[in-house]
Amino acid sequence: MTNSTTPDVTLYGAPMSMYSGKVRAYLRKHCIAFQEVMPGDLRFREKIYPQVKRGIVPVLEHADGQLVQDTVDIIDHFENHNLGKFSVYPCEPKQRLAALILDLFGSEGLFKVAMHYRWNYLDVNEDFIRYEFGDHAVPGAKPDMVAHVAEKVMGPMQAYLPLLGINSDTIPAIEAQYLELLSLLNAHFSEHPYLLGGLPSVADYGFFAPLYAHLSRDPHPGMLMKQSAQRVYRWTERMNAANADTPEYGNYEAAYFPDDEIPSSLHAILALIGRDYMPEIRQTLSSIDTWLAQNPQVEAGSCVTAKPRIKSLMPMDYSFRGVTMTGMVMPYRLYMLQRITDTFAELPADVQKELTEFFDSLGLAELLTMKAQRRVERAGHIEVWGESVGNS
Which residue from 76, 182, 214, 235 has the fewest beta carbons nearer than 10 Å? Predict the structure, then answer.
């Protein structure tokens, strides 16, 4: 602690930010004291932005000036220093891989769902999110200034919709996926407080990113969740609590499922990921490998896109629930995928065989071994290309 009242940790984030919510929930659940500062604060603009090289949140700062950026890196920062109350990575191999798959899908695969329900229901959402965006840009300003500034910062976010393939042809499929997922999650949380039992894992934090900031707080999707999936809404409250917050479950043990169990309610969620998300991941890897073949001069350590602030290499088309989606090729997703493949590669051959059979039944076996021609690493708070690795 720097003094008796100021926590050692500062979180640069915002309430309406998907990924700020993921980190904030982790800090709260593990009783890590922090203060939160909006990215519009002068400290962020003058001190943090020059180091992280882009206007991005969340960023975590220690009192000694050490910075950690990105939700995976921030959570792993505390995990690697044993600063959490418990590990958010289950020890058992099946549960660990399931948790990493769920984290990938929640953090990345539901991005288009979150963006659709925020920006395509402005008749209900706009008054709420206008002040959310204005406050994050000019914290402490008067309401008129907040509303004025909000118009400037909301536009770039709305511009993502066509880049994500969100249009009149694809919206029915996006909403159908979300409503099915809500139903499956509601059934699961009717029996269990968290995705893998009695403790929140990285799976919960990955799903929390879109399901909290966009889908439970914004007015239209928030009402939809409360009306159709009360147990999911209660889980968003539980994820924000510093204690277990599980009174409706009686004496439910604060532990992951025993014996590496994956209950049938979670099978159904994983199977949805196998059906809906695998085409997008396959096309992402194929597009990245094509781009790498066309750009053999790319050096290890160089930024994965033209500039750190740019998320995508190029557009891509992929199949999603019977329609063609236009999406963005985001190399960052390799960074999350590699956590799955690296974990699987370290397991004994007999365990790999058993887990391949299990995940194959859910349409996810391919995810355990699929690799691009180059790894994506993180250095200096940005994603960079690693060395060539091939597909073996």
Answer: 76
Q: Which CATH architecture fits 9-80?
A: 3-Layer(aba) Sandwich (3.40)
CB atoms closer than 10 angstroms to residue 280:
19
What lies within 8 Å, CB to CB, of 304 at 6+ separation is 313, 331, 332, 376, 382, 383, 384, 385
Buried b (16+ CB within 10 A) or exposed e, 339-375: bbbebbeebeeeebeebbebbeebbbbebbebbbbbb
Indicate if the pLDDT at residue 4 is higher than 50. no
Q: Where are the domains of the chain?
A: 9-80, 93-119+166-273, 121-160, 277-388
The CATH code belonging to domain 93-119+166-273 is 1.20.1050.10
pLDDT > 90: percent of the chain = 95
What predicted TM-score, i.e. pTM, was given to this entire model?
A: 0.96
